[in-house]
Amino acid sequence: MISLHARLSQRKLSFDLEHSAGRTLAVIGRNGTGKSSLIGLLSGILIPDDGGSIVLDGQEVADPWVGPHKRPITLLSQDPTLFPHLSVLDNAAYGLRAGGMKKSEARERARSYIEPLGIGDLVDRMPHQLSGGQQQRVALARAIAVEPKILLLDEPLAAMDVSAAVVLRDLIKDALKDRTGVVVTHDMADISAFADDVAVLADGQVSDYGSVEEKMADENSMLRKYFLGF
Ligand SMILES: Nc1ncnc2c1ncn2[C@@H]1O[C@H](COP(=O)(O)OP(=O)(O)OP(=O)(O)O)[C@@H](O)[C@H]1O
């Protein structure tokens, strides 16, 4: 479950959002409407104004001392940002190692997340020896190897070419099964593939929220207007 009641007055943003556990939420909105800021609040990169509340899987995290590593979430962004000095296997094992797991166990666990992503033969490579699509798969393995309750995705396919995006979209869909997800996207294909619900940001707030099915059926919904223009 995600409950977000947070203001960022300097950015003129004010979010009120309740989202059920086990469902994936697509966040859409025009440039500058606050999508990255919302991801920043959930991931711990941004701290809300005093009085804000951010509850993730039952844990209140609005306090600045509940840093990103203490939250039940991981973030996959557009840029894979792998650690350049670590192999594919050690990149994928990073979160587990940071959580205190022994190296051999973390590597074994990481391998079990890497193989289903079709990059099992690349475990010993360094990031610079991978294509962008392969790097994003490693970043996905790193994000899910710690078994986060909530997976945030900030335009995860925006930098991919069409064929890499098609493969990764399926892998992300699998990763979101039985998990709470939040996906910032400008792409209807992502919404069709992953999203149960949609939040449309406008005027510094969540202007529309509901199930994708319901919003697509409603010809006056902001989702329809955003993508179809009628
Ligand atoms: N570091 C910052 N300091 C102050 N204001 C900021 C900062 N970053 C963003 N803003 C403002 O906050 C508002 C929301 O920006 P944000 O980047 O969250 O929007 P976005 O929907 O992610 O935009 P885009 O689609 O262009 O990435 C904008 O008005 C922006 O100018």
Give me some keywords for this one.
single chain, 230 residues, alpha/beta, Rossmann fold, 2 domains, six-stranded mixed beta sheet, four-stranded antiparallel beta sheet, 8 helices, 10 strands, 23% strand, binds adenosine-5'-triphosphate, AAA+_ATPase, P-loop_NTPase, ATP binding, transport
Structural features, described:
A six-stranded mixed sheet has the order 6-7-8-3-9-10, sandwiched between helices. It folds into two domains: 1-72 and 149-168 and 179-230, Rossmann fold (3-Layer(aba) Sandwich), CATH 3.40.50; 84-147, no CATH class. The protein is of the alpha/beta class and 230 residues long. 42% of the residues are buried. Helix 2 runs parallel beside helix 4 (132-145), helix 3 (103-114) crosses helix 4 and helix 4 runs parallel beside helix 5. The chain contains eight helices and ten strands. 35% of the residues lie in helices and 23% in strands.
